[in-house]
Amino acid sequence: MDLKQKTVIITGASSGIGATLAQKAGQRGARVVLAARNESKLDVLAKTMSDSGSKVLAVVTDITDPFQCRDLVLQTVETFGSIDILILNAGISMWAVFEEIEDVSFFKNLMDVNYMGAVYCVQSALPHLKKNRGLIVQMSTAQALMGFPHHTGYAASKHALQGFLTSLEIEMQKSVRFLHIYLGWIRDTNLRRNAFSLQGQPMGEQKRSHSSESIGLEVCTDAILEAIATDKRKIYLPAKLGFIPFLNAVYPSFLRRKVSKAVQTQT
């Protein structure tokens, strides 16, 4: 897919992967719609992109509100006339041992953002995507493929999204295309800073540090745009994550030991 003159909606676009993807897509000629809750960050990013010649629309959106998701789609179509790509990037994580959590109510927030927020966006955008045989990009994670320690609620929400989108893909019978992106740990984002702690609050300065296993933001976003351009159905970053489905089916005990050790190195 050539991104030139394509309309791309990116949720969670105010920082990290979303913001970087938005700028690079704009540089490739896409008409970019920025969606996030932080109005000031969206405005700054939109101005930066506009000043560099990109066509951009910023829409303050809380994706946990279905009416705001409908408005996001409505403003996009009114401004640019169509929707070609929906990138489901918004998400929130957690780092906490389940048995040490006293109040698990923040698990609902994880489901609302990571699962229902994506459902609301897809529901509103789907008729427009079908008109153009458009593309839904799932910004997923290794936690959608198996269980991860310290990530019980997060893995559950990502499993839910995985089930929803793979089921929808079958229903659509290629009238809409899908790209599933499974990410490991990515540096230079706020995902860990904003992740829920034991107390159900953002980790902030208590966030876990990244190990050498992590991938840089530039490498990550370049690979995502390349996957879109070459019409891939799924990619794994890093590539070794692609072994997870096989190992989980054939050598589950070995895989769980490796994953537990990998999580411990992220401290």
General description of the model:
With 267 residues, the chain is an alpha/beta fold. It is 47% helix and 15% strand. It is built from nine helices and seven strands, in the order E-H-E-H-E-H-E-H-E-H-E-H-H-E-H-H. It has a seven-stranded parallel sheet, with helices on both faces. It is globular and about 50 Å long.
Global outline: globular
CATH topology: Rossmann fold
Overall number of domains: 1
Strand content: 5-15%
Can you count the helices? 9
Total number of strands:
7
Integer average pLDDT: 93
Largest sheet strand order: 3-2-1-4-5-6-7
What ranges have pLDDT less than 50 throughout 5 or more consecutive residues?
A: none
In the CATH scheme, the class would be Alpha Beta
The SS-based structural class is: alpha/beta
Task: Provide the succession of SSEs.
Answer: EHEHEHEHEHEHHEHH
Secondary structure layout:
Layout: E1 7-11, H1 16-27, E2 31-36, H2 39-51, E3 55-60, H3 66-80, E4 85-88, H4 106-131, E5 135-141, H5 152-172, E6 177-183, H6 191-194, H7 217-229, E7 234-237, H8 244-250, H9 252-265
Parallel strand pairs: 1-2, 1-4, 2-3, 4-5, 5-6, 6-7
Brief write-up:
With 267 residues, this protein is of the alpha/beta class. Helix content is 47%, strand content 15%.
Features:
267 residues, Rossmann fold
